[in-house]
Amino acid sequence: MTQTRILTLVGSLRVASINRRLAEAAVRTAPEGVEIAIYEGLGDIPFYNEDLDVPGSVPAAAQALRDAVAVSDGLLLVTPEYNGSIPAVLKNAIDWASRPYGAGALKDRPVAVVSGSISPNAAKWAHGDVVKALGVAGARVVENAHLHFAGFGERFAESHPRDDAEALTQLGATVHELVQATGELVSA
């Protein structure tokens, strides 16, 4: 089996974000033969603008994202919920990675979505918006890999998700489903 590459996009730019910590914990669940990398630099990408999306002069930060998505075997998106919806930085990443329309780096790429918030809603509204945007963009959303964390202000206030056995088990199951969707993992 070749190395499977999973690229993780985190919808919060805050260094101490619990969503970022969930992504870090997911990295630890990678089975043998799977590399999970957290993409750095989403905050450097300009807002999508067709005037900037011109072959040969795409902003370097946007092109770097497209290239990283294109060489990945699958994506793991981790999203908080801002005002009941998807964070702008994550929507912007989806917009850039989806272009050119019908042939962007997201086309047919397997994607799993993890959402979490301090509310009992577990960022399910943002999750739904991310899934919708990915579907319209042509990604292959892996329904069996969805995961929601509710009330994590209390749950992870004093500890990192990597120290929570239940969270690691859940994240590991999500990663497993995503890797299976890439066609790289054979069930035993």
From TrEMBL:
Domain of life of the native organism: Bacteria
InterPro entries (alphabetical): Flavoprotein-like_sf, FMN_Rdtase-like_dom, NAD(P)H-dep_reductase
Pfam families for the chain: FMN_red
NADPH-dependent FMN reductase-like domain boundaries: 4-149
Entry protein name: NAD(P)H-dependent oxidoreductase
Protein's organism: Nocardia vinacea
